[in-house]
Input
Amino acid sequence: MGFAATVLTLYPEMFPGPLGTALAGRALADSVWSLETVDIRGFARDKHRSVDDTPAGGGPGMVMRADILAAAIDAANAGASGRPLVYLSPRGAPLTQERLRSWSEGPGLMLVCGRFEGMDERIFRARPGEEVSLGDFVLSGGEPAALALLDGVVRLLPGVMGKTASMEEESFENGLLEYPHYTRPRRFEGEEIPEVLLSGDHAAIAAWRREQAEAITKTRRPDLFGRYEQGKRTGDERD
Ligand code: SAH
Output
């Protein structure tokens, strides 16, 4: 049995969406992973099938009801417990490569997608899980965030990417952004491929790439670079 993803959403028709094509789509067809959606609206109780209500205390928009969410989560859980429960939320912990990797080594995920103004706060205590954010911006719903999260997890599953060695050098895997890539033609609009990459000297190429990765990380992401340097220092102390 492969990695099992269950997505709780008001828009099940958004899935698998882009995850049905390319790398993730092939892995889905090959049962490397599975994807199931649970339509939250199916757990509405009244004749209007409402899943949301006006915010207590007033204000704009609507709030997803905790009782309906709980019923949907319980139904999804009935078949497959032991999988981490994740709420997509701009207030959550920002997603990291490290987090994706640890989920990819587990049995699967249950993802809950919000809509409207978000979810009734009590759901987070009634059905404890992890709140996760795609970044410091607001989407209209959790679905695109769930698609992005799953895309990132699925490519880490064994056998999905051809060359696993290429993953180890990727952005974030070693705490740095990746070095720049080049391919043919050798000269493009007056700019040549850096000489060292054509030298065949593997040690020189590795050193150049490391240098480039460090320089790019230092200018673009001083936050990452600081942590990388700190990691190197504590690593040295251990040696
Ligand atoms: N009123 C909320 C935003 C609600 S957006 C606030 O200001 O925090 C509606 C839903 O979209 C959220 O419940 C969440 O599931 C999803 N969403 C929006 N932005 C997101 C982000 N950056 N990461 C993950 N999910 C997000």
